Amino acid sequence: MNKKQLRLHYKALRATLTGTAVEDGSIAMANRLLHLPIWDKVYFHVFLPMASHNEPDTEPILHLLAGRDKDIVVSRSDFTTGEMTHFLLTDNTRFRINGYGIPEPVDGIEVQPEKIDVVFVPLLAFDASGNRVGYGKGFYDRFLSGCRPETIKIGLSFFEAAGPWDDVFESDVKLDYCVTPERIYHFNPGTENC
Predict the structure, then answer these.
(1) 28-57 burial by CB neighbour count: b if 16+ within 10 A, else e?
(2) Which residue numbers belong to the known binding site?
(3) Exposure winner among 37, 64, 73, 124, fewest CB in 10 A?
(4) What pTM, to 2 d.p., does this model score?
(5) Which domains does the chain have, with CATH numbers?
(6) Residue positions forming the annotated binding site for ATP
């Protein structure tokens, strides 16, 4: 399989999920995050989901982070440049829905990528080596390549790892973990899946 085929396959699979399955799976993923060694970190980047595409709902994660007084960062995408701008989420943050159905901050306190400690990464599929397939626009690969090497990258998926695919590129940024409703995948040497 290649990335294009995986995108089609996993978009179709996600389209079959009920609202209850999305809600229950999203809560299960948030609960699994409590077992990761990330809670001493400060700046957490969270994607805001495209509900129409049955992406994992990150609201339970936002509640976890707020309850632990973490600094939460959200992004706005520029589809002409392919770049993302990151803003601190505050009580005063105003949002608008972009043309792809993604809630985005209108403005706010900008946060540079090198300051971010943990990134929750949207994806369509991932493999047992930590490679991910996104929507193909490259936003997250560009963003993650601007983060510090030690920034922790965590994918969120309703489905388990896919088989390897043919078109993995050097510019593809690998995940450190992927969390599903059923388990946590660890991609760094010396850690075990659980």
Answers:
(1) bbbebbeebebeeeebbbbbbbbeeebbbb
(2) 3-7, 50, 55, 132-140
(3) 37
(4) 0.94
(5) 3-186 (3.40.50.10420)
(6) 3-7, 132-140
